[in-house]
Amino acid sequence: MGSKDAAFLALKPSLSTVAPVTTNPMDETIPGNISIRILIPNLMIIICGLAGLTGNAIVFWLLLFHLHRNAFSIYILNLVIADFLFLLGHIIASTMQLLKVSYLNIIFLYCFYTIMMVLYNIGLTMLSAINTKHCLSVLYPIWYRSHCTKHTSTVICAAIWDLSLFICFLNRYFCGLLDTKYKNDNGCLASNFFITAYLMFLFVVLCLSTLALLARLFCGAGKMKFTRLFVTIMLTVLVFLLCGLPSAIHWFLLIWIKIDYGVFAYDVFLASLVLSAVNSCANPIIYFFVGSFRHRLKHQTLKMVLQNVLQDTPETAENMVEMSRGKAEP
Question: Which residues form the G-protein coupled receptors family 1 profile domain (predicted)?
Fold first, then answer.
């Protein structure tokens, strides 16, 4: 088992087969010896996760069966699937933690952790792809219209799923997924370094494309006008930087630092888990908020609200009236 995995298992009792040891004698407890430090974050994850599952399920249903899919909606659909499964994994882990249910064996533990890592990678990669695609559509509109089609988006999304699965399962193979006695320290170290570099690359791409869009919006001769799609993407990126990024920093950066994983570090780890759950359940809220903004809700259905989010043209008085009357049918 690699040093990274050992540290991870030591920090996350919800994924371990050993009950957590409370190192702070001042911890408050409730009947059943469940530490408040453990109870509150896991309850927050479960409550937030259930709300997020509902919101992502509604968005998935609308995108799949009720809306005409375009290049951007295909990416959003895949992001919704990744967020839904990621939240489901969070709920399962937190429920098992509160009920003190042990995992079947170390192999199951490794598989569960690997699946969560795959889903996180897919979510970040999809968000980077959405932001980059929108950046290209703004900066190079002619090239974008001739090269970026629905078929291209479908192929890229499939490649993202395949690449994330390959990278994460290759990492688990070298770090002892199939046989915990198998040791390939050099391979595990190289694989962990590659995943860290991959995530850092995605973060750089996300930041550069965001800065390019903001520069195009506020600077230059032909300034870009606000669209609902632009606002949606910017809010989604902002929420990820605030809530989703801390988990990546903890999992793939801080875990390498040789520190004493005490009570404070464990609290930071729990906070990063809660924030990652918030990040996955926030996107449906953003979609419905941006889609209904400046519209009269009593005249808007969920389908129309989500349809507004995918609008990539500046709003005028005319098209706002048309959308409010529901004329923008697929």
Answer: 55-287
